[in-house]
Amino acid sequence: MAARSVTDPDVWWHLRTGQLTIQNHRVFHNDPYSFTRFDQPWMDHEWLSQVFIFALYRVAGWGGLIAGFAAIIAAAFLLIFQRSAGRPYVAGAVTVWGAVASIPCWGVRPQMLTLLLASIFLLLLERSYERPKWLWWMPLLTLLWVNLHAGFAVGIAFLILFLVGDGLDFAFGYKDTQLSPARFRRLAVVTVLCVVVVPLSPYGTQMYRYPFETLHSHAMLAYIGEWLSPDFHQARYLPALFLMLATLVLPALSARRLRPRELLLLGVTTYAALRSVRHIPIYVLIAVPLVSSMIEACLRAKGKTVLLDSSRQPLTLLKVIANAILLAGFLAFTMARLHYVVAHQPETEAKEFPLGAAAFLMTSRPSGPLLNHYNWGGYFIWKLFPVYKVYIDGRADLYGDTFMDEFAASYYLKGKSWQDPLNQWGIQTLVLPPDAPLTLALRAMPGWKTTFSDRQSVVLTRAGSGVSQ
């Protein structure tokens, strides 16, 4: 399920940045890719992920990236399965349910490393009640995480929620031996240590504020699809909706009562998932084990334990052969799936990105500056840099809310000043989808001419600007 074609528009500038970071032996602190924000301060919080992405691509190509990130996603869900009651069958089914709910967010992207590390954090936190020493791994994991992705804030949030949740458990009468004063002290110390190591990255104390700035960017919440609330009219979000409904219905049916800590974690992550699509996988990390445990309690109450207990029985020759056939079939299917996805990656690239326009630009070299579609900026960074610098790309935090609003106003022809950005930046060439409002408007104006067109993109140049042949 996790072996998917590479369609994320940011993977391209991740590849280029990883390549340049390795070549230059240093991380970026200023923007090198755009002419609208050139040399402005830039926090490349994903620098280590980008080094990993490019190294994997350099060694194994698209196949390595697709298989590698599929393994990362699968590992995250394996840990969810291990945390879930009702193994093997109930836990397995609910884990697959959670995986299907998370599919819209999967891909070759640094967020998948955050998903895996968040899954590891939850495993360590839950198992630390019996194995307290496991908590001491968390500051080291945070140090790694803060250099991989700004999602490290999720790990610190989990620590705080567990600390508060344990206090609520104790206050509401769950005074079991696990909630000792030593437990609270240890968890508090680990939380402080995880916060303390955050500046141990190339961007120092700036990493404290970066996650909050991202969450409060109105432009990112308005224009970037994965930051929008899930539209439950779309079928791909229905598994997440049904999982949320299950967390509302099952407490009334099951003898398993959720503790205050579990309710706190579920409530916070449900809100996060309803606020932004990209938070659905984090919600799934919490919801799947709880749903599985409540279903298990319902089945045990009804005496239906055949789906819960995996009793060990002597292996006969027939069972060995049957298992070998099943495993071989699964392996063959997985390899066939990987081969199919990798073989069709060039076709996917041509469908999702302006492959023809990029080739035309490199051949004909129309005059810049060049205005590009938001989702294509990263692709042009990989294909055209340093010949062309981009107008905008997926680093919305770099461009800021005002610039994003101005770009949207120009792209959608909002207001009387929609041409101002084109004049302000001296735009000579545009590369946009054929049906973009800005494309349709400029094609009807005498000052612009179409120099390239295909189903995916249109290249428009100002009349009189140079185009080499």
Describe this structure in words.
The protein has 19 helices and four strands. With 469 residues, it is mainly alpha-helical. It has a four-stranded mixed sheet, covered by helices on one side. The mean pLDDT is 94. It folds into three domains: 11-301, no CATH class; 317-345; 355-462, no CATH class. The protein is globular, with a radius of gyration of 25 Å. The chain has helices spanning 11-24, 47-83, 89-102, 111-127, 138-148, 152-171, 181-196, 206-215, 218-223, 238-253, 260-275, 280-301, 317-343, 345-352, 355-364, 377-383, 396-411, 420-424, 437-443, and strands at 370-372, 429-432, 448-453, 458-462. Helix 5 (138-148) packs parallel to helix 7 (181-196) and helix 6 (152-171) packs antiparallel against helix 7 (181-196). The protein is 59% helix and 4% strand. The two termini are 45 Å apart. A hairpin with a 4-residue loop joins strand 3 (448-453) and strand 4 (458-462). The longest helix is centred in the N-terminal third of the chain and has 37 residues, at 47-83.
